[in-house]
Structures are given as structure tokens and as C-alpha cells.
Amino acid sequence: MKTYRTGVVGTGFIGQVHIETVRRLGNVQVVALTDKFQAQERAQAMNVPAWFEDYKEMIDTMQLDMVHICTPNNTHFEIAMYALSHGVNVICEKPMTTTVEEARILVKKAEETGLVAAINFHNRFYPMTNHLMHIIRDGELGSIFSISGSYCQDWLLYDTDYSWRLNTEESGATRVIADIGSHWMDLAEFVSGQKITEVCADFSTIHPFRKKPNKTVLAFSSETFSESDYTEIPVHTEDNASVMFRFENGAKGIAFFSQVIAGKSVAIDLQIGGYKQSAQWNSADVNSLVLGQRDRGCTKIEKGTATVHPATLPLVAYPIGHAEGFPDAFKQCFKEVYESIEQKDKTWNYADFKDGLHEMILCEKIFESNEKQQWISIEKGSNS
């Protein structure tokens, strides 16, 4: 089995998850990391042999097979372009970029190089979301007419909660939509097999001003300060977003996305309505899927080798009753991405840069819809 040399750019919460998870594959060595803050300390803490403050130096000197991009959104474009231009495959966190034009350029660059270019939409890789995708393809739910749900968090509930994601220069025009709405939309389209064709959105911001700490604070930090340690800043991105959807095969949908719902750390809900059955998956019960029938009530299916669709079996690593969660979905996503480096002709489940571009277009159109307070169409052919 080939062993891959990997470098990680950005070692905040999600960068550390990437490092921990990719090591579980067995044939990937994390040989270097890059961070502008405490790079040496992070490398030593995670037993990574080399560290850099400049990602270009890492790519130029470390003979990498893959770069994982886990930095703020406004840096994704330049890092991915540099990696692809130097013959290095890329796994990038979402959203892919901060503009649709940047995303189009990256898609073209990836096609020109023939390198693997993936977006970490890991929710595709829970066994039960994958199982649901396959049974919908097999017609077990019948024709799909309804796709609804939500993705809620609470880590920005207080006006003293701060993250770089609140800064439009770093995060882009939308926050909740790009950060978590993109995950839900990708999952809804992947599972249902239907692309979104029209959107109608309404945003709200509960804190038009927030208190920014006068020093660097990591995402999801619960650290508190005195009043003198803060600077009040205006907020130009949404805390909540309600979005209605129309899908290409006629299904209608609605979803609510928020980062300010108390008690919701990571709460993803997806409900699919079909003419034969309905299905519901919720991240709080990640290893289960509930199927609803008109005359028989609901049936709860647990993840296991004897219960999932045959095509889902590669994603089941442990027996029934042994939970597989957030890091396991990352592992399965990364496993496919690395396997695709050598097996380019196979069809894979992971999201590539074309999928990343599609989500960027959806984010842009949803932002436009909120601004105009009307339905906005997703033009056919706009994803290329």
C-alpha cells in the first residue's frame, strides 16, 4: 500500500481534527503543518515532525502528496492554487472560497492538472445518510416530493462570542449559509439525488454589534474577558437564515439554519418525504434512520453490517451497537479521497471542486434572495 506524505495548513479546531483523523487511515503520514500562530507548539503537541509559518515554504520543501486546507475562507483560493500549481492534491474545508469566480478558477485548475481536489462535506459519509441515499436511488421511498430540515448551533449566542467567521473579509458575504447551510444543502442534494433550482431566503441578525476580544481567540472558545478587553464591532452577516427550496425533479423544501439557538451544539435534521415512505436522519442519533409508513407507523433502523444497503458496507467499520460519529465520517471521507489518487476512473461519493463551486453558487443566490426578498433561480449550466 502506498504511503502518502501530507501537510496541514491551519491547526485550529478543524485542523487538529484533520490531523488526528487522517492518521487513522494507516497509510498517511502527517509530515508537516503550517500555522501563523504557535506553529512549533502545535507541531510538538501533535507529534508532527516539521512546522512552518508560511504554507508556500512547506509545499516547496516537503515533497507532499496532499495538502489539507483548514484556514479561514478567504485564504482557501490562494493556498489551493499554489498547491495544485506545484503538483499537490488538495482537500479543502468548506466553503471552497469566498467568491464564485474564485471557485470557477479552481475547478478549471484542478481539471487542467488532473490532481485530486476535494471538499470536506463529511456528512455524506455517515453510514445511515449513505444508506438513505442508496434506498432512495432504489425507489424504496417512491418519488420524492418534500425535503426539509435544519442545522442549528449555539456557539455565537452571546454578543461576547467572537470568531473570524463574523468578519466578511475573512468569511465572505454569508456566514450561517456558507458555514453550516452549505453542509445541509450538500447532504440534501446528495441523499435525494435532486439539485436545487430556486431559492427564497430571509436572514436575521440578533446582534448587530458584537464585542471582539483584543487578542486572538480560537473557534468555539469559552474564554471570557473583562469589558476593557473588548472592542465593539458591527456585524454584517446573518445569525439565522430561513430558506425555501425548489428542486429539479419537482420536490419542494424548507430549512432553518442558525448559530444562536441555545442548547444546540451541532444539530442537523434532514427529513425526506416520498409517495411510499418518509425518512428522517438526525445528527443527535447519528447511527439510526427512521422510516415512516402510512399504515405501519415508524421503523427505526440501526447502523450495522446486516441492516445497511450493500453499497454502504464499506462505510461500516464497527458492529451494530458500536457508534460511529463525527471523526469516523471524516475518516471515511478522507479514505475515499486518498484512494482516488491512484484510482482515477472510479466513481466516488466525496465532494469535489465542482461540488464546491455548486455550493458557492447556492450561497451567492441565497444571499441575493435575502437582499431582494424574492425567489432566485439557479441557472442551468452555472456550475461549470
From TrEMBL:
Residue span, Gfo/Idh/MocA-like oxidoreductase N-terminal domain: 5-120
SUPFAM superfamilies with a match to the protein in the record: Glyceraldehyde-3-phosphate dehydrogenase-like, C-terminal domain, NAD(P)-binding Rossmann-fold domains
Record carries keyword Oxidoreductase: yes
Highest taxon listed in the record's lineage: Bacteria
Pfam families documented for this protein: GFO_IDH_MocA, GFO_IDH_MocA_C3
Record bears the keyword Transcription: no
Location of the GFO/IDH/MocA-like oxidoreductase domain: 132-276
Keywords, alphabetical: Oxidoreductase
Protein name: Gfo/Idh/MocA family oxidoreductase
Lineage per the UniProt record: Bacteria, Bacillati, Bacillota, Clostridia, Lachnospirales
